[in-house]
Amino acid sequence: MASNSSGDKGLRAIVIGMIVFVIGVTAVFVYFDKKPVENALMPASISEADGSGLVFNPEVTNQIDIWEDFQCPACRDFEAINNDYIKQIIADKKAKVVYHPLTFIGERSTLGFNESIIAANAAACAMDQNKFLEMHEILYQNLGAENSGKWTAEFMMALGNQIGIGSMKFQSCVTDGNYALWTESSSSYAAVKNVNSTPTVFVNGKELSREGGEYSDPAKFQAALAAGGIK
Fold it and tell me: How far apart are CA 223 and CA 231, in angstroms?
């Protein structure tokens, strides 16, 4: 009986030791999983006060926030209808416009990337080249089926060439996924703002109405902006 008791104690010690080991390893992975986000590379022209979104006209008081996923068909439709007007608002400095690329759609690969992340990273790389709006537009023009395998780093570089950014800096930014971790900042900020679908647009802090057609009708979209003080 003494021998069995000793064996039980030994088994318990092994089990406890394994539990402690697993907890320790988990803690290390959690730590290192969070650490890169803190040290993530950030694209040009972000606004930390706005969840590290990509910002145009930071000096302007009126503000439009746009949350979107580059694989989202509804985002493509919204962009097709309203993009020219938004670009004009930016050009005329009528509002501070903050883009928040989200990456909800698709399973992540073993590297932690899905096609939404690849596209958002490429758009941020284009921001460094002052070509975000052009990249934003051409991404939606080339939207295919979700997670079809179409959106690779090579395809992003080909799109970059079409809009005049073929530099080695842009290419390495795309292939290295420089801003892949930055996309988590947008996701975190979306949670803070209770944004759980795309597209979502706020005008001076007020969310546009989906039921009222403010996303799908350009006249209603422009009226909503005017009501928010952006004309």
Answer: 9
Q: Residue 221: its pLDDT value, please?
A: 97
CA distance 52 to 190: 11
Q: Which two tokens stand for residue 216?
A: 């799908």
Tokens coding 5? 């008791």
CA angle 67, 76, 89 (to 5 degrees): 65
137, exposed or middle or buried, with CB in 10 Å at 0-12, 13-18, 19+? middle
Per-residue model confidence as pLDDT tens digits over 171-229: 999 999 999 999 888 888 999 999 999 999 999 999 999 998 999 999 999 999 999 99
Give the whole-angstrom CA distance, residue 65 versus residue 201.
6
Strand bridging mode 206-207 / 96-102: unpaired
- For residue 11, the tally of other CB atoms under 10 A from its CB is 10
Max distance between CA atoms of the chain, in angstroms, equals 88
| CA-based nearest residue to 174, from 134, 129, 133, 119 | 119
The Cα–Cα gap between 144 and 123 comes to 17
At residue 65, the 3 state secondary structure works out as strand
Q: Could you give the CA distance from residue 2 to residue 53 in angstroms, rounded to a whole number?
A: 67
CA pair distance 217, 220, nearest whole angstrom: 5
Give pLDDT, residue 36. Answer: 38
Determine contact, residues 129/71, Cβ cutoff 8 Å: no
Q: Which two tokens stand for residue 143?
A: 């939207």
Spatial separation of the C-alpha atoms in residues 139 and 133, rounded to whole Å: 10
pTM exceeds 0.70 for this model: yes
Contact 136, 226 (CB under 8 A): no
